Amino acid sequence: MAPSVVIVGCGIAGLAAAGRLLQGGFPGRLRLLEAGDRSGGRAWSREFAEGLVEAGAQWIHGPSKQNAVFQLASQYDLLDEEAMSEENQAVQMDRLPPDVSTYYTSSGKRLGSEITAPVEELYSALYLKSREFFHSKTEPAHSLGEFLKHEIARCAEEWKDDVETCNLKLALLNGEFKLDCCISGTDSLDLVALQPFGEYVSLPGIDCVFPGGFKSLIDAMMKSLPKDIVSYNKPVKCIHWNGSFKTSETQEHSYPVLVECEDGETIPADHVIVTVSLGFLKEHYQTFIRPPLPDSKINSIQKLGFGTNSKIFLEFEKPFWEPECQLIRLVWEDESPLLSKRPDLQKEWFRKIFGFIVLQPMERHGHVLLAVLAGEEANFMESLSDSEVKNCLTQVLRRFTGTFSNNIMAMCQILTTAQSTYKLFYLGNPLIPQPKDIIRSKWYSDQYTKGSYTYTAVGSSGDDIDAIAQPLPLASTKAQPLQVLFAGEATHRAFYSTTHGALESGWREADRLNDHYLPFSSMNAKL
Ligand code: 6YU
Known about the structure:
Number of domains: 2
Helix content: 25-40%
Low-confidence stretches: 404-408, 410-428
Oligomer: single chain
Bound molecules: FAD-MDL72527 adduct
Radius of gyration: 25 Å
Strand content: 15-25%
Number of helices: 20
């Protein structure tokens, strides 16, 4: 009897596993079960304004030869010339792509690079230092936040500036903390473990996007699979393993696994590849897999972090930002990483937004700004209505860009360039109009995701990622091997939290099965 495999989840990991099994000549039957009504999971391009926006994954992080998503996208010819260029692939990005940022403060001042550049430089240096502890036996602090704050306090003692400038530098640094909360998908950098932080691998290449959205990759991956292989709106309730299950058609053969769906259907299988998010596992591990997961896995599921990174897209009739501006950064002057205060979510959730990214090119998107925020504030934002969020962000934009001084600058600009109202509009206007439209992500409220992506929380390490990735039964038992396998971004030790991590994890588990049945098949697939 040909073996049968069920893949739970049709995100990138599930699609990768299915594609690789078929490509590797897996001799059995295959089915993908997806709780939602579409493929792609956390890669979700949605129509908005004049084009597509990414509710989830947006960039190929480190687009170069070692990046599996970049490789696949290149094979399918989905990237533009710039992303494909050797120069682009060779740049080692230590933290962020070089954006043209415009900084505004909460009192409406625009900051010059004489203050922002040294602060950016300081933070980048501390960030790089924080990644060096991975190989050292001791760590100066348990969390990334603690370490950075300690270093900042030490540096601040040596600043020779006046009090106002020192406070402004601290406020700028606080903005960097908010940005890093988004990058790590965490509520606070105090929750991110310091030592394992350096284990995440940053690949070379300047981050790039798919001109046709991540959708173009998902569509291409779907096309390579047989039709009707995916069952949508088919949430799995429980995976029963270590059993002996028969069906009326297959009395001869008994299966070790039975997949029980929410709609009552039961599907026997020899192997199940689970690709659900860590957020889903955290919430359902007690009932989702029976008999229960071994303690080692449960501990790791509980210890690793899974937070929310939220996106809010605003469409405007006309741009009020300068044509070359790529990022509008917000600096709350009364904030500092050295002052910790629990936020009043109702009144202050929007303070967690580090800035507004300008979607480019304009011809592809229209006039769209993307606000990004992480953590509890992001979770809270999901509970608000579109109009509440839209009104609130309009006030924020007006406050930061619309002061008298900015308008004076605008007037000067008009006088010198004689370009009439155009410049006045671009250099800060208290009457910034309400956005035309809004769309936002709700990953925390999505019951089949429960957040955005994984981070190594204080008390966890890369070993926990490996522990989750271990197939069941664990190696030492005599039961049928490889009954339940685990893929998904949370199972990739070097590339967790990314699409390339998800893709590689799906390939890894498919190879495990291909190797089990046809020892040379996965080798053939890779050649
Ligand atoms: C990337 C980026 N990016 C922003 C935001 C988000 C993510 N990522 P899936 O969840 O996709 O699939 C599982 C499926 O299972 C799903 O369809 C479910 O419906 C289904 N399911 C669940 N339960 C089920 C059940 N019971 N029955 C049946 N089906 C069920 N990645 O490469 N570039 O720009 C971003 C970003 C807002 C939310 C991202 C990005 C993460 C990826 O989206 C994500 O990893 C993969 O899509 C996951 O695929 P999957 O298949 O595993 O699961 C130093 C250091 C620090 C470390 N971090 C730095 C890295 C930075 C990551 N940055 C991300 C940033 C953005 C903006």
